[in-house]
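User: Can you recover a sequence for this backbone? Please restate the input before giving your answer.

Assistant: Of course. Working from this structure:
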C-alpha cells in the first residue's frame, strides 16, 4: 500500500482515532490543571497507575464498569497526592510531578509482582474489555462511518470536551478555577480558596487521567504492560499547550498527535522507512509543537510590550 493510500484509508482513520483517545484524556487533564495554575507533570504516572488498577479490578470482578471506576479512583488519588504535596508540604508542583512519575513507574512493577508474580504485564490476567458502541446506518457511511463504531470511552472523550468547556466558561467553579490560575493572590483577596479550588481541579484532572489509563489497558489492549503509556501524558501536555487552553482546539491537536502516532505504526508495514525513525515521529512532533507554541507566545508578548510602550 502506498503512503497516500494509507493516509486516506478507513483503517488508518480508525487507528488514528484509537490513538487520539488517551492523548485527548491526558490533554484535558492538563487543561483543567493549567487553568487552575498547576503544571501537572503527574499525568503520565497517573495514567500508568490507573491503567494497571483498572486492568486488575476488571479481571478479578469481570466487570468493565468496576474496572473503569477503579482506574478513575486511582487517578484521583494521584491527583490528591499532588495537591497535598503542593499545598500542605509546600513543594514545587513540577518537581513533585516528576517524583510521582518516577514513583508510578516503580509502583506498577511492584504491584504486578506482588499480585501476579510478573514484572512486565498482565497477560496472565487479561482485562475485561470495554465494549464498542456500533450505531447502525451511520456506521455504513463511507470513511466517516468508523466514527460510529467506536469504544464507549471514545464517545465519553468527545462528550468530556463539551462538558469541560461548559464547566470552565459557564459555571461558578470554572470562573473560580480561571481566577486562581490567572492570579491566585487576587482570587484570594475576594474570598476564593486557592487550595480548595486547585484541589478540585486536580481531582477532575485525575478523572481524565484515569480514563486515559483504563482506555489503554481495557480497550486499546486487553492487558497492561509497564511501558504502555509511552509518553502519552507528556504528549497530552503538548496538545493542551498548542490548544492554548481551548478544549476544542485541544481536541484538534490531540487528533493531530494521534494521527502522527498512527502513521508511525502503520508506515512500518507499508513503507521502507526505518521503523526506528518512524517510532520517533510522535515525540519529534511533540518537541516541534512546543517550540512553535513557545515562539508564538513570545511574539504575542513582544507585540503586547510594543503596544504598551506606544501608549
Amino acid at each position: 500500500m502506498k503512503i497516500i493510500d494509507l493516509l486516506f484509508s478507513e483503517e488508518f482513520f480508525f487507528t488514528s482515532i484509537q490513538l487520539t483517545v488517551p492523548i485527548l484524556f491526558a490533554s484535558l487533564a492538563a487543561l483543567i490543571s493549567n487553568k487552575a495554575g498547576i503544571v501537572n507533570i503527574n499525568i503520565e504516572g497517573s495514567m500508568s497507575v490507573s491503567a494497571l488498577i483498572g486492568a486488575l479490578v476488571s479481571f478479578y470482578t469481570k466487570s468493565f464498569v468496576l474496572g473503569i471506576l477503579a482506574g478513575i479512583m486511582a487517578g484521583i488519588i494521584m491527583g490528591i497526592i499532588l495537591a497535598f504535596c503542593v499545598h500542605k508540604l509546600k513543594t514545587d508542583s513540577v518537581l513533585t510531578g516528576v517524583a510521582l512519575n518516577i514513583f508510578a513507574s516503580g509502583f506498577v512493577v511492584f504491584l504486578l509482582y506482588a499480585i501476579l508474580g510478573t514484572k512486565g504485564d498482565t497477560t496472565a490476567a487479561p482485562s475485561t474489555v470495554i465494549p464498542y458502541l456500533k450505531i447502525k446506518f451511520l456506521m455504513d457511511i463511507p470513511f466517516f462511518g468508523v466514527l460510529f463504531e467506536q469504544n464507549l470511552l471514545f464517545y465519553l472523550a468527545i462528550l468530556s470536551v463539551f462538558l469541560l468547556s461548559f464547566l470552565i466558561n459557564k459555571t461558578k467553579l470554572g470562573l473560580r478555577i480561571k481566577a486562581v490560575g490567572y492570579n491566585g493572590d487576587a482570587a484570594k483577596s475576594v474570598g476564593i480558596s486557592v487550595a480548595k479550588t486547585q484541589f478540585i481541579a486536580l481531582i477532575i484532572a485525575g478523572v481524565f487521567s484515569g480514563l486515559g489509563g483504563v482506555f489503554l489497558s481495557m480497550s486499546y489492549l486487553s492487558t497492561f504492560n509497564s511501558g504502555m503509556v509511552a509518553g502519552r501524558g507528556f504528549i497530552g501536555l503538548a496538545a493542551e499547550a498548542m490548544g492554548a487552553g481551548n478544549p476544542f482546539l485541544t481536541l484538534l491537536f490531540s487528533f493531530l498527535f494521534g494521527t502522527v502516532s498512527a502513521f508511525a505504526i502503520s508506515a512500518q508495514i507499508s513503507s521502507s522507512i526505518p521503523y526506528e525513525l518512524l517510532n520517533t515521529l510522535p515525540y519529534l512532533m511533540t518537541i516541534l509543537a512546543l517550540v512553535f507554541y513557545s515562539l508564538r507566545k513570545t511574539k504575542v508578548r513582544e507585540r503586547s510590550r510594543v503596544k504598551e510602550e506606544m501608549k
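That completes the design. Strands lie at 132-134, 149-151.
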